[in-house]
Each structure stands twice: as C-alpha cells, then as structure tokens.
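Retro notes, item 3 of 5
We never archived the inputs for the C6P complex last cycle. Fixing that now. Sequence and ligand:
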Amino acid sequence: MLEVKNIREDFPIFTERADNFVYLDSSATTLKPQTVIDAVADYYSKYSANVHRSIYSIGEKATAEYEGSRKKVADLINADYHSVIFTRGTTESINLVAYAWARKNLKPGDEILLTEMEHHSNIIPWQICSQETGAVLKHIPFDENGELELSQHEKLFTDKTKLVAIIHQSNVFGTINPVKDIIEMAKGVGAVTLIDAAQSVPHQKVDVQDLDCDFLAFSGHKMLGPTGVGVLYGKPEILEEMPPFMGGGEMIRTVSLNESTWNEIPWKFEAGTPNIAQAIGLGSAIDYINEIGLDKIHEHEQDILTYALEKMQKIPEVNIYGSADERGAVVSFNLDNIHPHDLSQLLDNDDIAIRAGHHCAQPIMKKLGVSATGRASFYLYNSKEDVDRLCESLVKTVKFMGS
Ligand code: C6P
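Structure as it came back at the time:
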C-alpha cells in the first residue's frame, strides 16, 4: 500500500479543506499536487513566452519545457516523440481523428465499430462522421457483468470494418476491456484502431507499441495534470498521410495567398498558440506519477477496490453495476429508492464527493434501465478509511431516507 498520509500532504486541497475531506471523483477529474500547480505558476511568473517562435531566452525556455513535456508523454506510453500531439483533451483527440482521418478515408457503406459502453466523446464524433461520410455504425454489446460480448466477433469484424474505436477502461463499470485482443481482431480485417484511454493511462502502464494501436487518446486532468491539455498518439505513418485538423499559425511550412504546405508531425496538428502552461503541468504530473510508480499506484487502487466492493456489497440497499474480473477502481451503484443526485448531496454534507449522473454514457444507462447512478472512483490519495467513511454515510442515508 502507498503511504496515503504522505501523498495527501502533496495535495494542497487536503489542507485547504477540512482534514476529513473524502474525494471519490477522480474519474471525472483528479486533484492536483503542489508540484503541478507550481509548474503552471512558474511558467506564468517566470518565462511566460510563446513557444517555437521566440528567439530570446524565456521563449527558448518555454519551448524547451513544452517540448520536454512531449518527450515525457512519449516515454510514458512508449511512443515516438513525433507521434504525440497535444490537444485539449480526450474529446478533442477523438474529434481530431474523426475529422482529419475519417473524412478522408471513409466512404458510404464502410463500417465504424464501437462498443455499447462508450463515453459520449467516442460516440458523437462518429455519429457526425457517419452522417457526413455514409459510413455505418456498429456496436460490440456488453453483458450483465459490464463486459464486452465478443463471442459474435466474426459478425462484427468484417471486410467492411474500417475503424474500430473502443474504450480501454469503462468510466461507468470500471471494466478493463481486452483491447489487445480487439486490436488483433481489427488488424485481421485491416481496420484502423483508436483506443479511448482516458481512464486507463492515469492508472496502469499503457504501451502503444505493445498494443499496436493506431491512435490512442487521453486527458491530462485525469492524471493529476491541469485541465485543457490532452494527448492524441498516432502512428507516424498514419499521421504523415492525414490532412490537418485545424489551420493557422505553426502548423505550416510555407504559406502563400492561395496555397500552403504543412509543418512536420506532430506540429502539423497543433495550429495556433498551444496550451503551453497546461502541457508543462502535464509533464510535471507525469514526473510525480513516475516518482511513485504506476505499478504501485495500480496495486494500491486494486487493494482499495477489493475492499470497497466487499464492504459496499454488505449494505443490502446498495446495487452495484458491473462485475468484470478485470476492472479499475471505479464503482457505480445506486441505493434502493434514492435518486443518486439526492445521495450525492447528502454525502456532500459529510464532506464526501462522489459523482452522480449518467457519466456521459447515456446508452449504458438506457441498457441498465436507470437514468443515473452514483459513482465512487479512487486514486493514489484515497485510503480504506475513505471507503469506511463512504459506507458509514451510505448506511446513514438509507436510515435517513427510510425514516
Ligand atoms: N469522463 C467522467 O466523469 P475529456 O472531457 O475530454 O477530458 O474526457 C472525456 C472522456 C472520454 N472518455 C472517457 C472514457 C471518459 O471517462 C471521459 C471523461 C468523465 O467519467 C467526465 S464525463
């Protein structure tokens, strides 16, 4: 187990708020350590110049730090430096592929294969894309455990399948999907693959060379970094062939009044002044995670997850959604006859923050037959005491609402 007490000292929000603050919403966004806050503040207070274009010392420092962060991201996911594009987040990363790759490569009748457990950000871009290109959407179903149902894979993966875009770890069930097998199946029919790794990269080692995916998307703010920065990894040979996403400064090599040529990758996909401070903050978040070790973080979370599942299941009024063998530290649940929004407010009175809602996964809610769920998600600063506090408060809520 990690020394949670020491870790919590690195996060100023725990000293800002009362000592008994229990934060169980890291799947939505994580808390930030002081080192990340300092890295962002340092940029603004000590060298807040633009990158790639300022030939003076603070500009060179800003460029070095910004590009240094790209190298840290590349090392984290075992990617080539030129294959890491900074975006605003997972959502923008997926949209980038849907606009730049898909519009060029898809034609009517082609198939885009998703799953039924996608987050809206891996649903909507493909619906828009399908309307514009005539490509057809297909979905891998999930079963009562919240696991993908792959027994019918021959029907799903066909010679018409051109893109397979799937969530690595479900933000609702916590299920860690067998993405390596799915990528193999996709390659078997010659399809391009995109992994939504928003909920996996912060919590486990993800190696793009080992997975052999074509694209991988994730967000900085879910891994201790600032909001407003995310990553799209793309295989260099695919990125080279792809047209730009947005046009503007920095993404060009030459511009004349009527035509232009593009910068090399990844800068071809980073039009305009990028989110410099946020990218530098993400680099600092990766340093923090590396110092503790992703393996240790994963082990710690698994330990808390096992404890939470055991303890929550003992409360008769708790209904948990999802029971996959391979899962991350996320528990979606409802209490009998209590709307999750009410539950969340009551827990907030005890200084416990959970998420309540559809989790940007309305198709999952529809299949489960609920409008919303509560969700507790855990990270390196959580402890078993946090689970105890949650469970005490759940029992109290049951009594309060039942009386
Ligand atoms: N899920 C949650 O509470 P952005 O907003 O672009 O950083 O990430 C979008 C996103 C994409 N894929 C998955 C699997 C996600 O979980 C998320 C964000 C948050 O579950 C906010 S809805």
